[in-house]
## 1
Amino acid sequence: MITRLSEVWPNVERVARGEGVARVGASKLDDDHNALFDAWLDRGHHATMQYLAKTAAIRGNPSARFPWAKSAIVILVPYSPARPEAPEGALSNHIARYALGDDYHDVLDGILRKIEAEVAPHGKTWRYVDTGPLSDRALATQAGLGWIAKNAMLINEQIGSYTFIGTLLTSLENDIEPDAVADRCGTCTRCLDACPTNAILPNRTVASEHCISYATIEHRGDLPNIPLASNAFGCDICQEVCPWNSEPAATHPAFAPRDEYRATPITDLLRYEQADFSVMFRKSAIKRAKLAGMQRNVAALTEAESRGMLKR
C-alpha cells in the first residue's frame, strides 16, 4: 500500500516534464504566512474582495476543509515574459502578459489532472489553480520552488517570476525534502520604486486598493483614482524591472500570445457587444474583468491619452 509521496514521485516528475512544467515540488500543509495575511486583512488591503475575508480561516488551515490532506504537490508553469510586436494601440500592448494566451486556470487544471491520475489510486486529492482559499505562493516556498519577493510575487532563482502556480492536495505523507531556498532580493527596491501607485508595501504584500491589477480586474464600478499606466487588464511593471526575470523559462505553448490581440485595436472593445467579447476572449483569463469592466478601463485609458496624461 502506497502511503508516501516518494513512492509515486518518479511518475509525478515524468508527467510534469511531459506537460511543460518548469518546476515541481512537494510541501507539507503548514502555512507560516497566516499572521501576515490576517494583518493584511485587518488593514483592509483586500479592498472590495470580501471573499478573502470570508475564507480566511480555511486559507490558514486547509485541513479544516480537507482533514485528510497531508501534503501538496506544487507546480510552476511558465508564461511569456515578452510582448509580441504589435502596432501602437493594439490590445496586446495593454494587457498583462499572463493573459496573452489561454486561461491559466484551465491549462494548469488539465496538467494537475494528469498528475492526479498518478496519485489518486493511492489516496485522496484535490486540485487548486488560484480558485480557492489556499496560499499557493506560501506552499510553493515551502516546496523549495522560490521565495516570496518584495513585490509579493514568487521568484524562482533560475526562471524568475513569470510563472503560474498549480497545487494538488493529497492524503499521502510528504517525505520529499525541498531544496533550500534563500531570499535573494537583498537591498534591491526596483519593484517598489517602479510601482506608479505605491501599492507595494514594505512587508512584501500589496495594498489592493492602490493596485492597478486589482482596479482593472477585480474592482466593480467606477475606477479608483489611480493612474493605470497604459494598463487595461492587469499590470506587469514590478516584474518588468525585476533583475531575476532576465533568463525566464521557455513559455508553455498554451500561453503563446494570441495573434488576434496583436491585430485588434484596443479601442474596438468600446463598441463590443457581449457576443463579440465572448468570442474574442474565449478560454481567456480576461473574461474575469467582464465586458463592462474592460470597456470602463479602455475608456479611462482613451480619456487619459486625449488629455496627455497617459504615462508609463
Note: The chain has twelve helices and six strands.
## 2
Amino acid sequence: MKLSGGRIDAFLKRPDASVCAVLIYGPNAGLVSERADALAQKIADPKDPFQVSELVGAALQKDPRRLADEAAAMSLTGARRLVRVRGAGDGQVQLFRALLEDGPAAAFLLVEAGDLGPRSSLRGLFEGQPQAAALPCYGDEGRALEELIAATLSGARLTLDEDARDHLLAYLGEDRILIRNELEKLIIYLGADAAGRSRASGSGPVTLEEVAACIGDSARLSLEEIASAVGEGDGNALERSLARAFREGIGAVPVLRAAARHLVRLHLVTGEIAAGRDEKAAIDALKPRVFFKAAPAFRRQLRHWDPARLAEAIELLTRAEIECKTTGLPAQAVCGHALMRIAGGGRAP
C-alpha cells in the first residue's frame, strides 16, 4: 500500500490494524526519523528492550536469519514487539520479501531507508503488499514548511513579521531535523520559552534582522556560499564550498535547489531591469528581500548575467536534479558538473 499526502498523517496517528510492516523512506532524513519515531511509539515502548529490537540493514547481509528470528520472537510481557531496521536498501529486498510473503509475523516491522526511486525493488515490495505500507518523506516546502515554522514558534508564543517569515521559508532548507534545530536555536536566541516568556528585545513579531542574526550558519551558510559562488562565476570558491557542504552531509538536490533559487532571483531582477525598471526598485521588490550583507555581491552578479543565460542555467539545474533522482549516476558528481558549467558562464569578463 502506498500512502501520500494527508493519508500519511492519518496513518501515523492511527495505524491501520491490517498493516504489520511499514517502510518509511525519502531524501528528508530528518522527517524519516521523526515519522519512524512517531510510529514506533504507537506500536511499542521504545525504551523497553524486550519490546523493541533494532537492526541495521547492512548487518542483515552477514546474518540473514536475524531478521526472521527477531520478527518471529514473542514478547516476554505479552505486548506486541517492534523490529526496527535502519539504513535498509534494495540489497536486502529478498529478506523482506521472504518475511512478508510468509504472512503476518508476530512482531511489527518498521523499516527506514534513504531516497528510493520509482524503480526501487524495496519500495515496490512494500507498496505492493496488502499487509505493508510505504510512506515517502520529501522536503518540507511551501505550505508544509510554513505550517511547521508556525507550529514550532507558537509553542513559545512567537510570531513572525512578513519579511522574517519569507526569509525563513527561503533559507531553512528541507531536512526536518535541521529545520527544528534552527527554529529551536532561534527561540533560545530570542529568550523565549515554552512558558511564553517574551524575548529580551521586547514584544511584537520577530523581525528579519533578528532572524538573520541567528539563522544562516552551518548548512544554510554553506548553501548560500555555493549559490553566491555560482552567481559570481568563482570556480575555486565553488569547489571549496561544495566540498565542505558534502562533508557536512548536505545532499546534492538541496545544493542544486539553493543555486536555482538564487539564479531565479537574479532572473527576476534582470528581467525587470531589461523591461526598463530601476535596478534598486527591482531588487527591493524581491521577496524575501536581499540580505544587506549579500546586496553588493547580488548587484555585482546582475551585471554578469542576462535573462536568456539565466534561463538556460536554471534549466540545466532542473535537468541535473532529475538526473540525480532517476539515472543512478553519482549525485554529487552530477551536481558538481552542472554547477561548474554554470559558474563558467557567470564569470566576470
Note: Residues 252-274 form the longest helix (23 residues).
## 3
Amino acid sequence: MNPIIPEPIARQPWQMLIPLFMLVTFGAAVLYSAAGGSMEPFAASHLVRFAIFLVMASIIAMCPRELVKLLAYPAYIGVLLLLLAVEAIGAIGGGSQRWLSLGPLVLQPSELMKPVIVLALARFFDALPIGMIPTWRSLVPAAGMIGIPMAMVLVQPDLGTALAIGFGGAVVMLLAGLPMRWFLTGGALALIAAPLAYFFALQDYQQRRVTTFLDPESDPLGAGYHITQSKIAIGSGGLFGKGFNNGSQSHLNYLPEPHTDFVFATMAEEWGLAGGLFVLLAFALILRWGMQVARRAPDRFSRLLAAGMTTTIFFYVAINLLMVMGLAPVVGIPLPFMSHGGSSMMTNMICIGTLMMVSRWNRLAPRGRIS
C-alpha cells in the first residue's frame, strides 16, 4: 500500500477512471461549443448527470455477488413490465413511444434493458451445468429472454436499441460456450431474412435510413442530409481542426443533432484528427480495462457479467462512430460519455458501476479460485 495515498483512494481503478473523467470533460467542452459558447443547455446538465450517475455507479460497485444474483431475474421482469407500461401509457416523441413520464423524471426503459439482459443471461448460464450449455435446452430459453424485449422495443419503434439488446445477449451466449456453428447459422438466416424484414418489418423512415446509408448522395438535402453534413464536418477538421468554438457546421445549424448523435462530428470539425484519436484512445483504455476485469474474474457469473457490460459500451461506441462516418445506417445511438442525454449516460454508468463491482469481487476473491 502506498503510505502517502489513503488506501480507499489508491485501490480505485484509476486506469479506467482517468480516461473516463477526461472523456466526460472533453465531451462537456464539445457541448459548450455546440451551444454556441454557453454551458447551457447542454454542458452543465451533462456534467451534473455524470456526477449523479457516478455516485450511482459507486453504490453499484459495493454490491455483494449473492445479492446481485438474487436480483437478476426480478430486475429483468421489472424492466419487462416497464416496457409494457410504455406501450400502455408511454409518452410519444419524434414519432416513437419510448418514454415513461414519472413526475420530474422521464425514463426510457429500453435503455435499462441493455445492461439488465446481460445480468439476467449471466445468471441463467451460471446456474446451468457445464454439459447443458451447448444444447438446445440452454439456447431456447436464452433466445426467448433476448427475443421478448427485442420485439417489445421494435414495436416502439427503436431499431438501434433493439440491436443493442440483441448484441449484448448474443455476446453473453457466445462467451458462455454455445457452439459457434449456431451463431453462423443464425447469421446466415438473418441475411436471408433481411430483405423480408426491410419490406415488412421496418417503418418507412427506417427503410429510408438503409437506402440512404447505401447511397447518401442520392438525396443530399433530404434523407441523406445527416450523413452528408456529418462527413463535411469531419473532413473539414483536417489534422488539428478549426479551433475550439469555431466549428461552422454546428454553429450555423448545418449539422443536425450536433449535441447528441453527431457529437463526434462536432468535435472532429473543431479538434480534427488529433481530437478523434484522443477520443478513440480514451475509449480503448476503458474497454481494455473492462476486458481485463472479465479475464480476471474468479467465476463464470462474474466473467460473463463483466464481458457483457464491456461489449455493451463497445456497441455504443462502434455503432455511433460508424454511423457518423457514413459506414452504418443512422440508428440513433449516442456516443457514450460525450453525447448529451440522460438515458445514455445512465446505461453506460450502470455498465461502469457493474465493472467496478466485478473488479472489487476480483480483488477480494481468494487467489487460485476459478470456477
Note: Residues 68-202 form one domain.
## 4
Amino acid sequence: MTDLFLRFKAHYGFEVTFCNPYAGHEKGNVENKVGYFRRNVFVPLPVAGDTCRNEELLGGCEADWQREHYKKNVPIQLLFEDDKKALLYLLRHPFTACRYARVKTEGYGKFSIDGKYFYSSSPE
C-alpha cells in the first residue's frame, strides 16, 4: 500500500481486503453485475444529453432493487438497507489527497520527488 493510501485508510478508519493476484474468479461477481446492467438496463444504448433517458435509467435501477437476490431469496433493497446500517459516518473534514512539498528545480525546471520520478514545472 502506498503512503497516500495508508493515510486515506487511517483517515476514514476502514479495513482493506485484497483479492489474490491472478485469481480472476474472485472478482467475477462484480464483473457479472456490470454485464447484467449492460444487457438489461442499457438497451437501447443511451444517447448523451438525453435527460429523459436518465430518468428511465434511474427508474430501471430502482425497479431492479425489488428483484430477489439469486442466493439469499430476499429483495436486493433489503440487503442494501442492512449494508447501510454497517456503514461508518463520514468525517466533517474531508481527506486531502495531495502532498505539498517545497523542492528545488534544476536549470530546465525539472524536479524529483522521493528520488523516483522527475516532473517538469515552469522555469520561473
Note: DSSP finds four helices and two strands in the chain.
